[in-house]
Amino acid sequence: MTFRRTVALTVLASALVACGQAPGSTAVRLQGAHKVNAPGKDVASFSAVKKKVSVPNEVVVTTTEGAKLNASGEILDHFSFRGRTYHLVDAETGVAKVLNALRGQGYKADQNLQAFVTGTTAGAPPAPPPAPPAPPPSDPGQPPTNPPNPGNPGSPGQVPAPPGGPGQPPASNAPNDEFYFSQWGLKMANIPNLWTTTRGREDLVVAVVDTGIDYTHPDLSNKVVLGPNYTFTKKWWQIGKKDPGPIDDNSHGTHCAGIIGSLANNNVGIAGVAPGVKVMAVKVLDANGGGTDFAVMKGIAYAITHGAKIVNLSLGSAGASSVEREFYEAATDAGALIVAASGNEAAGVGFPAAYPGVLSVGAIDSGKNLASFSNHDTSLGLVAPGVGIMSTILGKQYAKFSGTSMATPYVSGVAALVWSKHPELTADQVRDKLLSTAEKLGDPSLFGNGLVDPQKALAN
After folding, report:
1. Range(s) of the chain covered by CATH 3.40.50.200
2. CA–CA separation, 206 vs 200, rounded Å?
3. Which residue, of 16, 121, 148, 168, has the greatest Cβ tally within 10 A?
4. What global pTM score does this model have?
């Protein structure tokens, strides 16, 4: 028996403070992510455990856009993009009927039709071993101690503070956001200094194809372009059930959106890498962090055809297919920059990050060491901050997450700054600029082209 492939979020916890099974165990592990209320207050936590999820037998069939298959009655869903139509078909009863319908229109299966059937996927990687909670600060007015850093075992229990961090005077250009002191990735690259050149154009849209975005969050106020919710289902008897839209019900997508474009200098929360841009909420993963390749492709197609220049994919699935490869080639040919997480299994670069034309991103810690969980090989594009990253979550709160999921929106934000300064560039040119200006950190099979360097990328 075969199954449609599921996808999983590429996030893992910054530290384990409490461990247990939350209601509705998911296909992603979000253990001990720190929910930060305010400096000097207790740090809460939430957790979920990994669970494999199988879905009914389904096949994705792609044809030229003119093929008429709806009459077969076996099409579960479909969308068209760049001259082709992608059909979700019931594998048990629909394939034969679909093939017959195509042959009746003069199609030949070996020339005009592709299909793939995919298997189950393991969820996100295991979190680091539990660590005891950090002792409370001696001064209740001081911020809580940083959580253990899984990417830097040489300094357990403490993330080294870059210049301008806690206990040091802030840089003169530092924003007044409440938790900026903990945003080591922004401080390491002195990103606020770039905002005198550009904060990101308001007409530049970065799509977050993920679990949705909490567009009611105060740090994302008036920042979010509402896209579709491709996880919504409604049975014939659920007369009053309404689509809630792309509102986040997990926190993962909201966290990614905050890294890209959270408001800056508003005395609230954090600052995004590109606080001037818009983020588009495209919900393809459910509250458990689960979804399908078909929904992801459909979400990307929607984003690109509705004006997104950059598509952030902080997710991954198991293995490649010719249909997906064709789709991602079409997406990049359409002029979009696709930025995708390499994965958290400490293995080779996963998919869709490994497809040609997709900019794959691994994670480093604040010491510029490769994070212990980060996937890597010679195909890796860039690395970026991905350990102990503070950003927005549900409930108008903030949390530190770790994962290539966090490194990816950092690169998407830098790409948005580059494209805002140079709107005449193509997606390939923006990608090449990021790759060619990266800071070399060592072995390309570990760090790819290196650490994304916002200063150099915007300097020319």
Report:
1. 177-235+242-459
2. 11
3. 148
4. 0.79
